[in-house]
């Protein structure tokens, strides 16, 4: 569980992942490295706190690779948020061009935002 004004950094083989939440400010999840089938469970756990955030922001500056299992985690979380009556859409910031292209090819712009 994240606390207000606290930082949580998790060191993983592909790079650091951190989350930050300060008071009523939106939560930002920073993803780094590669997320594939081997890290699907880890990604699902990292994304989970976004279900209660408004807005739900993912900083993808250092995200270098996603496969279909990572996309499934994102779709699953956004679908659950919508089903639970939340109008918040997950917002991805600073996507690398190759990740943006994958998201676009998968039609993710229909369910999440990316800037």
Structural features, described:
The structure is a single chain. Strands 1-2-3-4-5-6 form a 6-stranded mixed β-sheet. It has a single domain (6-114), classed as Transcription Regulator spoIIAA, CATH 3.30.750. Mean pLDDT is 83; it is low at 1-13 and 21-25. It is 29% helix and 35% strand. With 115 residues, it is α/β, with parallel strands linked by helices. The N and C termini lie far apart (27 Å). The chain contains 3 helices and 6 strands, in the order βββαβαβαβ. The protein has helices at 40-47, 68-83, 97-105, and strands at residues 6-12, 15-21, 27-35, 56-66, 90-93, 113-114.
- Number of DSSP helices? 3
Q: What percentage of residues falls in helices of 4 or more residues?
A: 25-40%
Low-confidence runs of at least 5 consecutive residues = 1-13, 21-25
CATH architecture verdict: 2-Layer Sandwich
Radius of gyration, Cα only, in angstroms? 13 Å
Coarse shape: globular
* Order of the strands making up the biggest sheet: 1-2-3-4-5-6
Mean pLDDT across the residues is 83
Quick one: CATH class? Answer: Alpha Beta
Name the structural class: alpha/beta
Give the count of structural domains: 1
Identify the CATH homologous superfamily: STAS domain
The SSE order reads EEEHEHEHE
CATH topology group = Transcription Regulator spoIIAA
Major β-sheet annotation: 6 strands, mixed
Q: Strand percentage, roughly?
A: 25-35%
CA-CA gap between termini: 27 Å
Let me know the number of strands.
6
